[in-house]
Write a structure and sequence with these properties.
Layout: H1 2-23, H2 25-32, H3 38-48, H4 51-78, H5 84-105, H6 109-126, H7 143-160, H8 162-173, H9 178-191, H10 193-224, H11 226-250
């Protein structure tokens, strides 16, 4: 099981990163929004803890997506005018503040879905499309290995300590935008603040499929069974992801 954890997520991250270099920053963000790390975490929680644990964690993950979207919005608004440090600090502060409020509110699933829809659509409307600066050069050689290492750390850390954290906290912190943060900072440094904002716009677009994946798990894991539920969640997520990309490209 440990070998699977060490191999699955970094392989997915490698594929996504190479595809992103081929098709640009919007697609890079869109791919980052897919549950490349949180999805495997959820599977491992279901196998190692229990389906009930993973189902509760999935509902908490949907709450965490609200905070993740606020992080993306804050960084995207700051990056065109400020450097990476200030943009990241401001976005993390927004993430922590939103998470604290959500922990205190403990919203039900219907309320969570309403918050998700409002936050996602509102954030997309609030991030304007801007012309992108020319890249300053090729990314450093360690760029993709660093992303893969982050993915391994997230998956192994969350699954190994899930028993101590409990299902709610495990799910809530699962969508913490570690991969999106790495992508945003690297893009900001290499391609400029407008490119970072565009990338995070893509992450928010990808959050539709992310949310669809965990909604299927929250509603269907214990009813359908482990294999069937994760297969259906993956299929629904792929359909939603493809739809959002097509619709976004029609608007450009």
């Amino acid at each position: 099981m440990l070998l699977l954890k060490l191999a699955l997520s970094p392989t997915l991250i490698l594929i996504a990163s190479l595809a992103a270099r081929r098709w640009g920053v919007l697609v890079a963000g869109w791919i980052a929004g897919f549950p490349l790390t949180s999805g495997p975490v959820s599977i491992f929680l279901a196998v190692e803890q229990s389906p009930a644990f993973a189902r509760t964690a999935a509902q908490a993950t949907l709450v965490g997506v609200v905070a993740m979207t606020v992080f993306c919005l804050a960084y995207a608004k700051l990056s065109p005018r400020h450097g990476t440090a200030l943009s990241l600090v401001g976005a993390v502060a927004a993430l922590l503040g939103t998470t604290a409020v959500l922990l205190a509110l403990a919203p039900s699933l219907p309320v969570t879905l309403a918050l998700l829809l409002g936050t996602t659509l509102g954030s997309l409307a609030a991030i304007p499309r801007r012309p992108l600066d020319a890249p300053v050069g090729d990314p450093p050689w360690w760029d993709i290995p660093a992303r893969m290492a982050v993915a391994v750390g997230l998956v192994v850390g969350l699954t190994e300590f899930a028993g101590l954290l409990g299902p709610e906290l495990s799910g809530l912190i699962s969508p913490i935008p570690i991969f999106a943060s790495v992508l945003a900072v690297f893009t900001h440094r290499h391609d400029g603040g407008n490119a970072a904002a565009e990338l995070l716009r893509g992450v928010i677009l990808g959050s539709f499929s992310f949310s669809a994946f965990f909604l299927v798990i929250a509603l269907g894991l214990e009813r359908l069974g482990l294999v069937e539920a994760y297969a259906l969640a993956t299929l629904v997520s792929m359909v939603v992801n493809g739809t959002t990309l097509v619709l976004s490209r029609r608007r450009t």
